[in-house]
């Protein structure tokens, strides 16, 4: 086989508010020297950490090494909106309603398995309610079209026996303090996490069982005989089996090239405020239209913050400019002010972009891609749950721990090939922008 030489990862855009208000409880360790291990995991996000925990459960006597290119929680895993969602959530669809009950039931079971795995980790590692909150979530509607989308979604949930409850405008105002919303659809199975705290708490909990090295990017990965060897700046790790939990960067390792879309989403977090005009202390809203605004309120120590996430862009260069970040932050300011006019004097303290990975046919980049090399990548827009699931399933696959869930998860086609650039860039961004415009006041 050819050696794999990995290019340098692009810099992150902006500082994640979640990371900025988080603290870590363990020191940074960097790979320095040559190690041999039973297992090597690349990437300390949801997939990599979940794979490491699962391996430690299945093979408690094995030596497990995890390499992270940057610093834990400062990359993609600490930059998302923090929703662990059990019921269907497909960003490539124009609405949340589902077409196939069979597929939906299987997907919900997989999502709930991942949430249960995360809940067990949160309990074992002593995470607080602020870090891991099984609160459920609300699909909020701000337009008549949004109300129809919620009604359709409710019918599809009813068809498969899923619990849900509709909220009217008064109930939405009581929860959020805002007159902006006409109604909502509550589902109880979602968990809200503080993603940076969760990732850091997870890593700290694993530290006694797994050797975790940060600022240790894999620059070269080669197989020699029965062993893979990963080279970083100041050391190497050799192991017979490797799990890649690097999401869209799996392309840099020579696999699934031309099949994955690198989508950026954007978020802003306010400075702390003490206003009583924003309803309850904590709430979490998804938009009735998947391309609308995700809005969360968090509270601690007598003050609150609001996080708003809007806009998507497709960038095959896997990086966005400061100018674009500032422009989208201005749009988010207008969106927040429309919902909460009393907060116009509360500035955004943190503005950032985060990457997610989609495939054209909404399937993961999963499986044994070379002998002893496993991929747990491409979370299709719900990395908290899908990446957790993929990490666990990759560990099960690599240890030959068979289950019905693994069989179902493995029985998927590979990601479909994208059109050549720049046609893919033009087509994907056109579809995204049209869907965002259609979302209107939901955004």
Descriptive key words:
10 helices; 443 residues; 6-stranded mixed sheet
Structure description:
This protein has 443 residues and is α/β, with parallel strands linked by helices. Helices cover 30% and strands 26% of the residues. It has ten helices and 22 strands. The strands form four sheets. It has an eight-stranded mixed sheet. Strands 11-4-3-15-22-21 form a six-stranded mixed sheet, with helices on one face. A five-stranded mixed sheet has the order 1-12-13-14-2, with no helix packed on it. A hairpin with a 2-residue loop joins strand 21 (365-370) and strand 22 (373-377). Helix 2 packs parallel to helix 8 (383-398) and helix 3 packs across helix 8. The protein is globular and about 65 Å long. The model has no long low-confidence stretch (mean pLDDT 91).
Poorly predicted regions are none
Overall pLDDT confidence: 91
Beta-strand residue fraction: 25-35%
- Quote the distance from N terminus to C terminus: 48 Å
Radius of gyration: 21 Å
> What does the overall shape look like?
globular
Number of helices: 10
Largest sheet: 8 strands, mixed
Specify the helix fraction band.
25-40%
What is the SS-derived class?
A: alpha/beta
Number of strands: 22
Strand order of the largest sheet: 8-9-7-17-18-19-16-20
């Amino acid at each position: 086989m050819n050696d794999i030489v990995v290019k340098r990862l692009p810099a992150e855009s902006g500082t994640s508010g979640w990371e900025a208000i988080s603290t870590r409880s363990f020191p940074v360790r960097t790979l320095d020297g040559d190690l041999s291990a039973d297992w090597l995991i690349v990437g300390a996000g949801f997939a990599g950490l979940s794979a490491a925990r699962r391996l430690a459960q299945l093979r408690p006597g094995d030596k497990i090494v995890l390499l992270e290119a940057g610093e834990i929680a400062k990359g993609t895993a600490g930059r998302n909106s923090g929703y662990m969602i059990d019921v269907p959530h497909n960003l490539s669809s124009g609405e949340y309603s589902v077409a196939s009950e069979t597929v939906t039931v299987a997907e919900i079971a997989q999502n709930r398995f991942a949430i249960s795995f995360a809940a067990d980790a949160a309990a074992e590692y002593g995470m607080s309610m602020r870090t891991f909150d099984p609160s459920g979530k609300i699909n909020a509607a701000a337009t008549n079209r949004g109300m129809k989308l919620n009604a359709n979604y409710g019918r599809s949930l009813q068809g498969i026996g899923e619990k849900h409850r509709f909220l009217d405008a008064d109930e939405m105002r009581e929860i959020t303090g805002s007159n902006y919303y006409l109604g909502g659809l509550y589902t109880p199975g979602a968990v809200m996490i503080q993603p940076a705290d969760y990732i850091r708490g997870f890593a700290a909990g694993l530290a006694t069982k797994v050797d975790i090295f940060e600022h240790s990017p894999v620059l070269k990965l080669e197989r020699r005989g029965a062993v893979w060897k990963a080279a970083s700046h100041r050391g190497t790790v050799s192991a017979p089996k490797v799990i890649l939990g690097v999401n869209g960067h799996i392309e840099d390792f020579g696999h699934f090239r031309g099949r994955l879309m690198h989508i950026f989403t954007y978020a802003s977090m306010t400075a702390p405020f003490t206003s009583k005009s924003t309803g309850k202390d904590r709430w979490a809203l998804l938009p009735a239209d998947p391309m609308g605004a995700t809005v969360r309120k968090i509270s601690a120590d007598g003050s609150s913050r609001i996080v708003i996430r809007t806009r998507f862009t497709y960038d095959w260069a896997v990086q966005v400019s400061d100018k674009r970040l500032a422009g989208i932050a201005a749009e988010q300011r207008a969106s927040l002010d429309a919902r909460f006019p009393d907060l116009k004097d509360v500035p955004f303290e943190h503005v950032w972009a985060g990457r997610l990975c989609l495939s054209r046919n909404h399937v993961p980049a999963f499986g044994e891609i070379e002998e002893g090399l496993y991929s747990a990548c491409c979370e299709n827009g719900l990395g908290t749950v899908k990446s957790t699931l993929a990490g666990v399933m990759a560990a099960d696959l690599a240890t030959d721990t068979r289950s019905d869930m693994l069989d179902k998860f493995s029985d998927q086609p590979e990601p479909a090939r994208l059109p050549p650039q720049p046609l893919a860039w033009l087509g994907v961004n056109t579809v995204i922008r049209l869907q965002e415009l259609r979302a209107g006041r939901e955004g």
